[in-house]
Amino acid sequence: MATLSIKDLHVSVGGKEILKGVTLDVHQGRTTALVGPNGHGKSTLLFAIMGHPNYLVTSGSITLDGQDVLALSVDERSKLGLFLAMQYPSEIPGVNSADFLKAAMNVRRDKPMSLFQFYSKMQTAYQEMGIPFEMSARNLNEGFSGGEKKRNEILQLKLLEPSIAMLDEIDSGLDVDALRVVSSAIVEEQKKGRGFLVVSHYARLYDLIAPDDVAVMVNGRIAVTGGPEIISKIDTKGYEWIKTELGIEIEKESSVGSIGVCATKEALKK
Ligand SMILES: Nc1ncnc2c1ncn2[C@@H]1O[C@H](COP(=O)(O)OP(=O)(O)O)[C@@H](O)[C@H]1O
Ligand SMILES: [Mg+2]
Question: Is the pLDDT reported for residue 183 higher than 50?
Answer without folding.
Answer: yes
